[in-house]
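Lab meeting minutes (informal)
Scribe: AK
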Amino acid sequence: MTDSPTPVVAVIVVAAGSGTRLGRSHPKAFVQLAGRTLLEHALRSVYSLPDPIQVIVVAPEDRVSEARAIAVDAAAAAAAAAAAASTDIVAGGATRQESVRRGLAVLHAGVEIVLVHDAARALTPAALFERVVAMVRDTNDGVIPGLAVVDTIKRIDATGTILGTVDRSELSAVQTPQGFPRALLVAAHDTVADEATDDAALVASAGHRVRVVTGDALAFKITTPHDLEAAELLLRAENSAPAVVMPRVGTGLDVHAFDDESELWLAGLFWPGERGLSGHSDGDVAVHAVCDALLGAAGLGDVGGIFGTTDARFAGAHGDVFLVETLRLVTQAGFGVGNVSLQIIGNRPRFAPRRAEAEALLAGLLHAPVNIAATTTDALGFTGRGEGIAATATALLVPLAAGDQPLGGRPVLSLDL
C-alpha cells in the first residue's frame, strides 16, 4: 500500500478459516472483538514490528475487499506502520495449507524469513514475532513458539479407557507465528503433498529441524465462544482507565466536659488559669475534631479507633502528637491536606485574642491552611450551661500524584508510637 525499504521478513496472516466452532456464520477472522475484527487486532501487532516487512493477508475469496479495508485501518492505527513495506491481500484455498501456499506465491524477491500467523490468535504481542524472527536468523531453522503443558495428559482408547500418562516434559503447546527461512518453507510446500496440521509439521516431514521458542499466553487461539469472551475480558482490563482519585472531604466532632483537676489545652495551645477538659489525653476537643475529619476523609476510621482511649502511650498526650501521626497516615494513604476549617463551641475561654496563634500552630503541623472560628450557644445546651466545650471540623484532602513531594515538599514527620 505504501513504498518502503525492501523487506527481508514477510508475515502471512491466514484469515480464511471458518467460524463454525465459534458459533458464527462467517469466517472467524471477521468476527468482532471489542469493536474490531480479529483480523484487525492481529494486524495491529504485525504492523507494529520495527523492521520493514511484507504483510500478506490470505482471506476468503468473497472477503478480499473487506480484508483490504481492514488492513488499511490497522496500518493507520499502528504506531510504527511506516515500517511495513507493503500489504498484499490474496484469496485463500480450500485448506489451510493451500492458503499458505497462495501467500508464498506473492513473496517479494528480497524476503528471506517468512512467518505464518493465524488471525484467530488476535492478541499475540509484537514481541513474540520479534522473538521468532531473531531465532530463525540465529539458527537458520524453523522456529515455532510454544508453552509448557501444565495439565496432566492421558492416552485413551476409543472407549475412553486410560492407556497411560504422557510425560509432560516432552510436550509443548505450540502457537503462531511460526517462522522459517524462506527457501526451507517454500521447498516443503512444493515437495510435501500430504496435508499437515501446521507449517512446522510440514517442514519437519520434509526432514528439516524445527525449534521451539518460548511463547506467550496472549497468543491463544480464539476458537470457541468462551475464548472470545476471555479475549474481551483481557482487552477490557487492558484498556480500562485507572480510577481517578477525587478530592475528599471529611467532618469531625468532639465533645469534652470540664474537669477542674486538669489544665486546659485547646487548639494545640495551653490556656493558663482556665478550667481543663476531661479526657484520656489532654482533652483537646479542637485537635480531636480535626483528626477525625482528616481520618474520615481518607477512609481511615476515627480518633478512637486509631489511637484508642485506653492506650497508655497517649495518656496526657498533647494535640501535636495526634496531628503529626494523623498526617502521616493520611499521606501514606495517598493524600495531602488541602485545608481545614474548625469551629469551637463554648463560653470559655475567650478565643479571639489567640486565634491567629492557634491557626499558625495547626497550619504548621498540617502544612496546610487552617481557619478557626469560635462561638457560643447563647446559654443553650451543655456548652451554654458551661459544662464543657465542643468542636466541629471539616477537612479537604487532595490526592497526591505519583512522584509528588507530599506536603509542599516538606518531609512527613514519623512517630515511633
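Next up, CB showed the second protein from the same session:
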Amino acid sequence: YNLGDNQRFEIGYETYQDEGDYSYRPDMGLATDLAITNSLGIPLLWPTELTRDTLTLNYDLTINNTVVKAAVYKNTSELKRDESGWADNAAFAGNAGFITGEANNTGASLIANTVIDSSIGHELTYGFDYVKHDTDYQGEFTDSTATAGEESSTLALFVEDKINVSEEFSVIPGLRYESYEIDSAVVDDEFNAFNLALALEYAPSNDLLFRLSATELFKGPEISEVFIGAGLYDTPNTDIKEETGVNLELSFAYQTEIDKNQSIALGATLFKTEVNDYIYDYATAPDEVGGGSWKDNVGDMSIDGFEAYVEYSYQAFTTLFTVSSAESELSAFTDYADLQNARLDRQQGDTVTLSVNYTFSDANIVTSWEIQRVQDVASGVDLDGATLDNSKDGFVVHNMSARWTPEAIKGLSLVFGIDNVFDEFYASQSSRTGVSFHPLFGELYLQDFEPGRNIKATVQYKF
C-alpha cells in the first residue's frame, strides 16, 4: 500500500506444509538408510510433518536525499515425527515415542542511505539488524520424556561511507558493532566485537570498474537444529570461542557496446577468506569430558578461490560463460593435529557453466540452454566427510527452458523446462558423498543421488 509518493507499506504471509514418510537420515542416500534399518531391525520410513509460517512487514520511506528501508519478520517452523517404529526391535523399545519441536526466528532491521552533496561527495549507509532464535524440543518416549531448548540473539549496528575523492576514485570505510548472546547446551555466554571494512573503487571510465576490499569477520557459536534435538545431545564446552577473521577480494568488471547489435561484458573476482578459531561441530572431545564428539575451535581455516565470467550478446542471442574455483585448508591446533590440512566436506570441484539464450521477439518466447560441468575432487583429509573414500565424482548436467508471454493475454506467462535433459546419474558435491565405515552398520554408501530427467511446466498470471 502506497501511503504517498514517498512511502510504501508491505505485508506478506507465507505458509508451507510438508507431510509424508521420510527416512530417519534424510541427509544420506537410500543405501545408508537400508543398511541402518536392516541392521537395527527398525522401519525405513518414519511419519513426519513439517510446517512453516512466515509473517513479514516492510516499510520504505524517501525524504530528500535519504532512503529508509525497515523490516520486521517472524518465522515459526514446527516438526512432528512419529518414532513408535523403534518398538519393532525390543532392544530399542525405550526409544519409541513421538517427537515435537518448534523453532522461532524473529528479526527487525533498518537500513538508511543518505547522499551528502559537497566538494567531496559522501554516500552514507547505516542502520541496525536484530535477530533472535528460539528452539524447543520434546520427546515423549515409552518410559521417559526428554526436553531441550536453546536461544540466541544478535544485535548489530553499522555505518559505511562511500567517499567520492574524484570522479574516478572512491574510498569506502565501514564499521560494524555486533553483540551476540547465546544460551545453549554447549555454552551460555555473550560475544562482542567491532569489525572494520575498507574498500577502494577505481572507475577510469563508465565501462570499467576495479575494486579492492577487506572485511573483518565475526561469528559466535550457533545453537543446534530442532531436527537433531535442539542441543539435547550436545556436550558443554564453556571455553569455546567465537570465529573471527578477514575476507579479501580483488575484482574488476567491464562492459561495452561493440555496435548497436553487439555488446560484451566480462569480470573476475579473486578472494581469500581467513577464519580464525574455526568451529567444527564434530570435533573429537577429550577423555576428561566423556569422549565422543563436541563443538570446538579446531584451527584456522583458509578459503581461496576465484570467479570469472564473459557475456556476449548479438541481437536476439546471448551467451554467458562462467568459471569458479575454491579450495579450503585447515591449519589445525595441536589438540586436533589429525585434522591438519583438512578441507571443508562440502568443497566443490572446479565449476564451468555455459548458458545460451535466444529470444524470438515476434512470438515473445525466450529460450535457454545451460550446461554445467563440475570437476572431480580427489580424496584427502576433510571435516565431517566419508571415512573410507571421500573423493567426489564430477558430472555434467544440461538444463533447458522456454518462457512464453502471449500478447493476447496481458499478465500471462507460460514456462516449460527440462532439468537434467540427458538423465545424468550424479550426486551433488554439496550433499553427503563417499563411503564410510560404522562399527555397527559396516560400510555405508552415503551418496544421495539427485533427480534424473525432470520435466516441468509453470503457469503464472499477474493482475
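CB comment: The first helix runs from residue 30 to 40.
No objections, moving on.
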